[in-house]
Amino acid sequence: MKPILALVGLIISLAVLLAGIALWWLLTAFNAPGPVSEERFLVVERGESLGHIAAKLESEGLLKKPLVFKLIARLSGAAADLKAGEYAVPASASAKDILELLRSGKVYHRSVTIPEGRTSWEIVQIVNALDVGGAIKSLPDEGALLPETYTYTRADTCSSLIARMEVAMDEVIEELWPGRAENLPFERVEEAITLASIVEKETGVAGERAKVAGVFINRLRKGMPLQSDPTVIYALTRGQHENTGKGPLGRRLLRKDLAFDSPYNTYKHTGLPPGPIANPGRGSIEAVLHPEEHDYLYFVADGTGGHAFAKTLDEHNRNVAVWRKIRRESGR
Predict the structure, then answer these.
(1) pTM for this prediction
(2) Which residues are 133's β-sheet partners?
């Protein structure tokens, strides 16, 4: 009987030893640094199985022993807690690191910045160039998109990003419109966005927006044409600017361009054009809804990035002469 008990004891001891060795190997492999030397991205689809995720980790070179990942995930109960999304997997990430990352749901957020004053055509070009699916084929309405920085993942689509920009613009309008100044020379939100788009294109200086808006408000009240160069450029291009580094026209705006027959040409037609000429940012919308009160009717570039403002045509002509001299001397 004793030899049998001794044999059983030996077998149990060997089994415990082997189990210990197996557990040691499993944990060692689980904690061992991964094979990649640089950050890589992993996309976990919604509803994707543990086996498929493990196979993907192996095929993309993130793990050499995907079986270890699967075993620990099942034994620990983590398999049911893995979250979909795109993840940035650090260099040398172990199976443990990756499992914890997928359980955390800390997905990688990419971002895209839409500059203020871009036309809808230009914004679509930016969005279509992103690493997301579903290229936009039809243009959103001009002025319907809010320029801002947006985060996204590869699970997003171009259409979903555009939809977020439209919602963001609606939210800004809903917030700002009720608190607008009294006695503005327009009554509809669409008119405010149209004027804001002109202000956006006229100045890149944030501190000037309300002042520039005030000039256009004054001209509208007097029935004067707005005479805004960006409206002529929009009339000529309909917002499909090539951006070759030489301006939206690829050349300087010429005097003959001011005679171009279009309802968007504010040299030929008084009042606001029939719609926005770009997508204005929050700052320009605020400026139009709360314009600076003054007597200025004119402005022209001053050579420093800002503008010189004038109350009379004679004063404006003097400012224009100064600007032309600066432009000649600088070779612009």
Answers:
(1) 0.80
(2) 157
